[in-house]
Specification:
Blueprint (H helix, E strand, L loop, with lengths): L1 H21 L1 H5 L3 H4 L5 E7 L47 E7 H12 L12 E12 L9 H15 L18 E11 L1 E9 L6 H21 L2 E9 L3 E4 L1 H6 L8 H15 L5 E9 L6 H15 L6 E6 L8 H9 L5 E6 L5 H9 L4
Helix pairs in contact: 4-6, 6-11, 8-9
């Protein structure tokens, strides 16, 4: 029975995974999913799947060919007036909410977008600890008592003492028979990584553009956390000046003013230089903007910062340009002009929410 239940559960989870993959683009662009995030679990609504079955009519209700009517009469449904029907006894369409772990979501994202696994660089600096059962011992907590070994020890003792009766095979336990699982805590080195998110919050970036950044950042975060156990996230916002903020401020800030992208790149470069040695850290800067910058001189300063300080230290540098009716969209062209042949710089144009999935594939498809 237990095996049947396990098989049914696995089959149900496979159906759920198939439904999620089938509608992944729709789930990705739904910002409300982020609000349902609990302890590494996201609730996803799925149309409930019903297994077809027969319904039996009541007794004395007739059979095939019974009831009024003449040869040639239509067998279609009767023409009832709207609202004239009686209360029914059939189920309507329901929505089933299933809980999916973020790790499983990352795996589904990998399968659907065909993302390669990342090859970490640097030293394995951060240590995680994992308990492993390695044997059996005579002492331990009752919650770890090993029944099979305890039973065998008691049986051997009774046979050796001559108290075991094959015609009445009762095995009694004494304290000396008890056996417990023993464990060892092993260190597990983990490659450490940091994501540095930068976002333009100038007057030309509206709520719709920030929502796109918020959704895409969530999925990037989900994927990279599946690749690295020791992952840090840092957040920088900028208009004419840049400053580091926490996650909530990053997504909720509403500001106005001009744009100097170099201010964010300077802060990013300083952060890397002071806190994240590239020999020990996997570094992923992501910059989101509408492509509007204050001047050509500031754009040239950005190019110089990328060439001299940021690119030599990072795995990849990703720039996502969100389409805005108020932005010029020039910055992505400047990056492609200077770094078109450099595979460390990845650019993506995000015209709307429907383009988020393609942008994620562009950013994460290099496997770096």
């Amino acid at each position: 029975m237990s095996q049947r239940i396990d098989q049914d559960h696995r089959r149900f989870r496979e159906i759920v995974r198939g439904k999620i993959k089938q509608n992944l683009r729709k789930y990705i662009v739904q910002g409300e999913m982020l609000g349902k995030k609990g302890k590494d679990v996201v609730s996803i609504p799925l149309p409930q799947i019903d297994i077809p079955h027969f319904r039996f009519g009541g007794k004395q209700s007739g059979g095939v060919g019974q009831g009024p009517g003449e040869v040639g009469d239509s067998l279609g449904p009767g023409q009832e007036q709207p609202g004239a029907g009686k209360a029914g006894d059939r189920e309507g369409q329901h929505i089933l909410e299933v809980d999916v772990t973020l790790e499983e979501l990352a795996q589904i994202l990998q399968e659907e977008l065909k993302l390669p696994r990342i090859q970490p660089k640097g030293k394995e600096k951060i240590l995680a600890w994992k308990d492993r059962y390695i044997g059996v011992r005579r002492t331990g907590p009752e919650s770890l008592r090993h029944f099979r070994h305890t039973f065998k020890a008691a049986l051997r003792r009774q046979i050796a003492m001559g108290t075991y009766d094959p015609t009445n095979p009762r095995v009694s336990f004494v304290r000396e028979d008890r056996r417990y699982r023993s464990w060892r805590t092993d260190p597990m080195p983990q490659s450490c990584a940091v994501i540095i998110y930068m976002m333009d919050v100038s007057g030309s970036m509206g709520d719709e553009q920030k929502e796109i950044v918020r959704i895409e950042s969530f999925w990037i975060d989900t994927w990279l956390r599946n690749q690295y156990k020791g992952l840090e996230s840092r957040y920088i916002i900028h208009d004419a000046m840049a400053r580091e903020v926490d996650r909530d401020t990053f997504f909720r800030t509403r500001e106005s003013g001009g744009t100097m992208i170099s201010s964010a790149y300077k802060l990013c470069a300083k952060m890397i230089e002071e806190e994240y040695p590239p020999t020990e850290w996997n570094i992923y800067p992501f910059h989101f903007s509408d492509g509007d910058n204050w001047s050509v001189d500031d754009t040239l300063a950005c190019i110089d910062l990328l060439k001299s300080k940021i690119l030599p230290a990072v795995n990849v540098f990703c720039y996502g340009q969100v389409e805005s009716p108020y932005g010029s969209g020039q910055f992505i062209k400047d990056l492609e002009e200077h770094f078109g042949q450099d595979d460390r710089v990845i650019t993506s144009e995000i015209k709307n929410k429907d383009a988020i999935m393609d942008s994620i594939r562009t950013f994460l498809g290099s496997g770096k």
